[in-house]
Write a structure and sequence with these properties.
It contains four helices and no strands. By secondary structure, the chain is mainly alpha-helical. It has one domain.
């Protein structure tokens, strides 16, 4: 059923959402690497916190930033239809 709803969306909206999702996945992957390799002691800092709010905020902002970047790069690389 989700496939029918996905293909019912306009083509440009599907294009933008798919590139946004790719960017969010890339942002979360980069965030995981920052935490795993403890770059700038970010992993140690977030591990020492009692609340998971900062970690969620770290991933939310990273995902939003990379998702928006990927979507905007994809839109800027669109070519004009010559038909």
């Amino acid at each position: 059923m989700l496939g029918k709803q996905w293909f019912a969306l306009p083509r440009l909206i599907r294009f933008m959402l798919s590139h946004f999702a790719d960017g969010v996945a890339l942002g979360w992957s980069c965030g995981l690497m920052v935490l795993w390799f403890d770059i700038g002691n970010v992993g140690s800092l977030l591990a020492g916190m009692d609340s998971a709010v900062l970690t969620a905020l770290f991933f939310a902002t990273g995902g939003l930033m990379f998702g928006t970047l990927a979507m905007s790069v994809a839109v800027m690389n669109l070519r004009e239809d010559t038909n």
